[in-house]
Amino acid sequence: MAGMMRAVKKICIALVFLGVSCAPVFAWEGYVTKIKDGDSFNVRKGNRIYGVRLYGVDSPEYRQSCWREASGFTRSLIQGETVTIIPMDTDQYGRIVALVRIQGRLLNSELVRNGLAWVYPKYCHAQPLCREMRALEQSAQRQGLGLWRKRGPIPPWLWRRSRR
């Protein structure tokens, strides 16, 4: 049964990448109540609040270069909006790790496209989505967008490690 669920999830990822809804399978809608940073927020479904972390990307941390810009970008797109959550996993903090769609756009990809998040190589494995997001990251880097305006930005996973 678990193998079949993984196969369905892979098909769903491919459909989401192509802009087709997977709502009947895994997705659900919720209202965004709070933006925590560029890649995490709270969403209300019914009477319950869920923490959501974006799948496959990592945006700058608080006090890291571009963190305000990344948080502001996410806030401008989804704060107070109804979004589609496509769960991929649950993280160590109990947050839902998800692909997030808003008005036909995939927030995960939009952050990378605008140079406001890195593709997180340790956790981004869904194909063809992660391959496409890596191409978006390279394009943002070539154009000097967002965090790529400065030479040698430090990815959040390395920045966090240096703070321990």
Whole-angstrom Rg: 15 Å
- Based on secondary structure, the structural category is alpha+beta
Number of helices: 5
Please give the oligomerization state of what you see. single chain
Mean of residue pLDDT? 89
**Range of strand content:** 25-35%
Order of helices and strands: HEEEEHEEEHEHH
Straight-line N-to-C gap: 40 Å
Question: Largest sheet, described in full?
Answer: 5 strands, mixed, barrel
Percentage of residues in helical conformation: 25-40%
Q: Total number of β-strand segments?
A: 8
Strands side by side in the biggest sheet: 1-2-3-6-5
Q: Shape, please? A: globular
Fold topology:
Blueprint: H1 2-17, E1 28-37, E2 40-45, E3 48-54, E4 57-58, H2 67-78, E5 82-90, E6 96-102, E7 105-106, H3 107-113, E8 118-119, H4 129-143, H5 156-163
Parallel strand pairs: 3-6
Antiparallel strand pairs: 1-2, 1-5, 2-3, 4-8, 5-6, 6-7
Helix pairs in contact: 3-4
Can you describe this structure?
Helix content is 35%, strand content 27%. It is of the alpha+beta class and 164 residues long. It has a 5-stranded mixed beta barrel. Helix 3 runs parallel beside helix 4.
Task: Give descriptors for this structure.
8 strands; 5 helices; two-stranded antiparallel sheet; 164 residues; 27% strand; 5-stranded mixed beta barrel; alpha+beta
